[in-house]
Amino acid sequence: MREFAGARLARLLVVGCVLWVLADGARAEDALTNLALKKKVTASTVEDGNPAEAATDGDEGTRWCASDGSAPQTVTIDLGGAKDIGGAEIRWEQENRTYQYALEGSADEKEWMLLNDQTDCGEKVQVHKLLAEGKGVRYVRLRIIGLEEGAWASLFEFKVYPADQIAKLSAEERKKWWAASQPNLAKGMPTTSSSDEDGHPSGDAVDGKADTRWCNNGPDAPAWLQVDLKKPSELSGCAILWEAAVNYKYKVEGSADAKEWKMLSDQTKTDSAKQSQKLTFAAKDIRYLKVTATELPEGSWASIFELKVFGKQ
Prior knowledge:
The protein is mainly beta. Helix content is 12%, strand content 45%. Strands 1, 2, 3, 4, 5, 6 and 7 form a seven-stranded antiparallel beta sheet that branches. Strands 8, 9, 10, 11, 12, 13 and 14 form a seven-stranded antiparallel beta sheet that branches. A hairpin with a 5-residue loop joins strand 11 (249-255) and strand 12 (261-267). The radius of gyration is 23 Å and the shape is globular. The termini are far apart. Residues 1-26 have low confidence and may be disordered.
């Protein structure tokens, strides 16, 4: 069938517009400015031949690597001045490995805000693109708290992107980037505990900051931390970032009135020594959630950096 010249031209214009939109979208992501490029960077430890500077040198053939396979490890970039940031990208050394970490920002390297929480990350991909909004950020810190057995903290490139450029990405492009983990119902809620060590109150476990923690006032067990969600909630699970990667034995309970408790997850016989532990359960009409350390390794105290509770209210 013959096609009229006008119809053919219209079809070509439509196809051309679609291709231009797709190309323009690709350019938007490709044109992102890396605020971290060649900026000063420090690390908790360094392996010979794989310095911290390699994480921001723009060369994907060089890498930073920690001096051994232990965690936690940190990489901190000084952007040279206060920036409004909107995202970050991490290219790890190895594929098919899981890394648990937190991305944090600070204006002064003293007070840190959580930009993206991947402390319960289970993804086995090499490149992590993160949505991470922070205003007035000069220092960006990657704090690696969990490593798969046999893996070392090691990455080829650590990039940081401006907020205004991330905001211009299309909805389809933003879907490729990881948002922060699901909403944390416990953040900022009232807490109580068995006891508090000086300087480590119970509220620090739900303040959204990855460098503050609750600690029981002594090595005794049982020791517990309780959070009031303020109204009955339908829970799907929780995540606990312990102070150390040791074998804490514990249980998680829920209650409607803080009097009658039911078991949500029994970890009293666990042999896991992971610092970050994510638990899945289903429970309705829960207002109070309590984590009780029932047995502690020798020399350890019950201590939690962050307790997150997932679900809906």
